[in-house]
Backbone:
């Protein structure tokens, strides 16, 4: 009994038995990056949005457009009052020229190059594209952090489910032993029949709890495999010693400051605000005039038969210069869009302030969850040791006839519950550390490696 009492506290920290090819928390996160469809969608979105930088640069490069067309065209020209002169002919006034082409063949070719020089709306649009790419980079970092949290949550959910099942089976052995002893004692007439009923009821209750726990394990196994593609049988031995405070914890003030400066959601919201301001700039009155350098060459030709016989009209043109465009009237659309964008700026500011308040509250809760949680773990460990001592005393008292069967069964149940409470409390501290890192924008490979070293310490058996 003394040996069992000394071994069980150590085993209380062991959550999953070791398997070959064991996978730890970091490896599970790395596997999820290759398997999780939600993360794959985030990666595709990131890669798609990063093309916005190329689009932004391309907007200020020259555009060259070639047009060509053929068709059937009627053409008629009439000129009167013209002056005619040619070598060998006298000058003649009042000359008329008429041409006509019916269902003639038309050909048109044009090559136009345009280079923006001044375009405030285009400048805002390119800045919005760059801001969109910036948001994609931040969102990609956030997607990695959220994946790490999801992996940890499912990893620990499976851990608790397995530990619950293990402890229930452990309790089942003890309760069935007590039930058999009770039946023997009843046959000898040393205890009343009610003790056998109590023991049998507890046996059946634990059987029902085990069935529910087994179902819960299967569900947790499926959700973990869906996320990572890893079988639960490949999980590493996880140990949760009471030394998570070995990981440095910044002060609450520093944690709040890091959240304000580095939280990805806040950075995305700030970028959205900048984009909303650029949208307003696009619709300001001074942003409407544009200047472009334009160069073009073209050729038009129509030929066929007309009212005066065969005819042909052709024209070649070439031009290079500066083009100024000033919208004079837009029907109120420009001013309406500007007013709309100003209100959207106010909306983005309010949403940013609300998000900041929520994230700071979450940061404070995570920080307190660590500091208070570590003290709670220490208290629960002492409670567990006390419950084990009570169980030993109750077992001895029951064997001597000083404790009832119900007292023994309650002591067994309390010991199991206290052991599971230690595991749950330790996992809560670990999750709060990961959540705090995510809120501070620092949940990355190095953070997981540090946590992983704490979680995967081996128990000397």
Residues:
């Amino acid at each position: 009994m003394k040996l069992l009492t000394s071994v069980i506290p150590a085993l209380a920290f062991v959550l999953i038995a070791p398997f070959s090819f064991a996978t730890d928390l970091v490896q599970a996160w790395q596997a999820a990056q290759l398997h999780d469809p939600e993360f794959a969608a985030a990666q595709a979105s990131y890669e798609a949005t990063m093309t916005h930088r190329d689009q932004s640069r391309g907007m200020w490069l020259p555009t060259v457009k070639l047009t060509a067309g053929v068709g059937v065209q009627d053409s008629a020209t009439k000129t009167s009052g013209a002056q005619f002169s040619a070598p060998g002919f006298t000058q003649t006034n009042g000359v008329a020229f008429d041409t006509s082409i019916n269902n003639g063949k038309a050909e048109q070719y044009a090559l136009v190059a345009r280079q923006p020089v001044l375009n405030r709306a285009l400048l805002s649009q390119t800045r919005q594209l760059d801001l969109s790419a910036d948001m994609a980079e931040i969102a990609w970092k956030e997607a990695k952090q959220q994946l790490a949290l999801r992996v940890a949550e499912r990893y620990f959910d499976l851990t608790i489910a397995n530990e619950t099942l293990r402890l229930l089976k452990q309790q089942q052995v003890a309760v069935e032993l007590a039930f058999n002893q009770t039946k023997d004692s009843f046959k000898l007439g040393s205890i009343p029949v009610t003790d056998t009923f109590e023991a049998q009821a507890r046996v059946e209750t634990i059987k029902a709890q085990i069935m529910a726990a087994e179902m819960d394990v299967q569900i947790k196994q499926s959700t973990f495999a869906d996320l990572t593609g890893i079988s639960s049988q490949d999980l590493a031995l996880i140990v949760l010693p009471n030394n998570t405070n070995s990981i440095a914890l910044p002060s609450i003030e520093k944690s709040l400051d890091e959240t304000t400066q580095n939280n990805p959601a806040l950075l995305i919201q700030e970028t959205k605000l900048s984009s909303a301001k650029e949208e307003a700039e696009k619709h300001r009155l001074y942003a409407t005039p544009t200047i472009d350098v334009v160069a073009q060459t073209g050729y038009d030709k129509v030929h066929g038969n007309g009212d005066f016989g065969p005819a042909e009209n052709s024209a070649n043109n070439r031009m290079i210069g500066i083009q100024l465009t000033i919208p004079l009237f837009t029907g109120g659309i420009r001013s309406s869009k500007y007013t709309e964008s100003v209100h959207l700026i106010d909306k983005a500011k309010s949403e940013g302030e609300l998000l900041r308040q929520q994230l700071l509250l979450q940061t404070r809760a995570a920080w307190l969850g660590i500091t208070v949680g570590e003290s709670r773990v220490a208290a629960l460990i002492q409670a567990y040791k006390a419950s084990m001592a009570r169980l030993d005393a109750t077992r001895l008292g029951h064997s001597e006839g000083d404790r009832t069967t119900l007292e023994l069964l309650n002591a067994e149940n309390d010991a199991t519950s206290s052991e599971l409470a230690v595991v749950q409390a330790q996992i809560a501290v670990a999750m709060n550390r990961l959540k705090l890192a995510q809120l501070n924008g620092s949940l990355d490979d190095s953070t997981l490696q540090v946590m992983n070293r704490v979680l995967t310490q081996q128990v000397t058996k």
In short: Residues 1-21 have pLDDT under 50 and may be disordered.
